[in-house]
Design brief:
Elements: H1 2-23, E1 24-26, H2 32-49, H3 53-57, E2 60-67, E3 73-75, H4 76-89, E4 90-106, E5 109-124, E6 127-144, E7 147-158, E8 161-163, E9 166-168, H5 189-192
Parallel strand pairs: 2-7
Antiparallel strand pairs: 1-4, 2-3, 4-5, 5-6, 6-7, 6-8, 8-9
Amino acid sequence: MKCWILVGLAVVCVVVTEARAEACAPVPRGDTRWHQLRSQYIRIERATIANDAKQLFALYAPGFEAHMFNGQVWSFKQSAAYSTAGFDQVKENLSISNTIVNLISCGATLKATVLQQWSRRQLSAGRLRLFQTTTVQDETWAFIDGEWKRTLVDDERPGAWLVDLKRVDPMKAYDPAAPPFDPDSLLRSDDHAR
């Protein structure tokens, strides 16, 4: 009897997993949803450049969450507070882009893998510094009230982050005295002094 129950549960798990897998499919590049989502990213970029929190957060769903590098899960309120504080620190935006690398439709939602690149001058450690950050992240969007709204940011994968042209560890608070970050030990320590 116990054996049949285990077999039955295994079959249910396989069927549910297959149903979920079938519900998601790549969105062809010419599909209008690519253009619709790209328009939303342009709005995010414009709001960031204008330091306009109201415009930025108009694109976020009420239950928005961000799953951070360090494992923390931030609510809409926490994300909004962080971004608003960032607006105060950033003194000049040099360039910002959000490039959709992949787009998958999962029922009523879209899952976008996005390459985020942002160069700016911002206050840090008592002075104005050049920040250049690159991150690949997955974002989930839902069609709400006639437009796509961001519901989730997760699986953030930081690329090279530079402050004043020195690579830094994106998992740590900026320390101007720290040596350049070399995650793969590609540079000898005497190379850093050159």
